[in-house]
């Protein structure tokens, strides 16, 4: 299986790519080949006298390539110009990628997460399953007198959940898109130890005992499928309320490493119609988010 990893060659992406645990999780997912892509601005000129942009990019990519190859992956490197999400999606389609991976940096553990322009655009337009890998930005702690330890960097990064798929929270509305997302467990079964299956009923159906019983039965049927795949620790959960809020509340309760959900959309204007829930979870979740687009997305 093949993954496309989008890198901006930053320290944050170095942190993700250098995490052996993360790479082992990708291998258990089934990834054995990686296309490493960085997209430069069309306005950046390389090769001009006095410019070392090209050489710096090459050195950084070679470092990341060596790291991935050392963990046993076959690696192809791509340096392209253009609009990042379009070039990333284009490569993913061309190589028939099974997974696209993009880093997502939050501003603060106490603030709503802002996933950045490229990650946001990928959420809206991805044509392949997209993993937003949460990377935390950490500022070294100051002492009471306002000083920091000598040699401490101003900014450090860490992967929020190195065991990418160990605990998965799967949110479903039982739609075709959600069913397509559930199919990801065929790849996740060797990497996932615990799974929570969640359905959120609308607030106006809180008192509908039949609807809740039906949802519980359907979730239990899905849970049985996962147990047959070898994922023994599977729990189900039905909550009532506003969908985004309830998914985020469930996340706080079960502490997953990744939230799995399908996205909605239609044809060429999908970016305008992507489900607000999907984008909100991608923006506000504390953990990794695995988004599966509709079949035939363009």
Features:
coiled coil; Rossmann fold; Universal_stress_UspA; eleven-stranded mixed beta sheet; 298 residues
Q: What composes the largest sheet? A: 11 strands, mixed
Radius of gyration: 20 Å
The CATH top-level class label of the domain at 2-46 and 53-140 and 153-186 and 259-292 = Alpha Beta
Helix content: 25-40%
Count of alpha and pi helical runs: 11
**Average pLDDT level:** 82
- Spans of at least 5 consecutive residues with low confidence: 46-51, 107-115, 266-274
What best-fitting shape do the alpha-carbon axes yield? elongated
CATH topology title of the domain at 2-46 and 53-140 and 153-186 and 259-292: Rossmann fold
**Structural category:** alpha/beta
Coiled coil: 205-232
InterPro entries: Rossmann-like_a/b/a_fold, Universal_stress_UspA, UspA
Family: Belongs to the universal stress protein A family.
Domain UspA: 2-131, 165-293
Explained architecture:
This protein is an alpha/beta fold and 298 residues long. The protein has a domain of 201 residues: Rossmann fold, CATH 3.40.50.12370. It contains eleven helices and eleven strands. Helix 3 links the parallel strand 2 and strand 3. Helix 9 runs parallel beside helix 11. It is elongated, with a radius of gyration of 20 Å. The protein starts with a strand and ends in a 6-residue tail after the last strand. About 8% of the residues have low confidence.
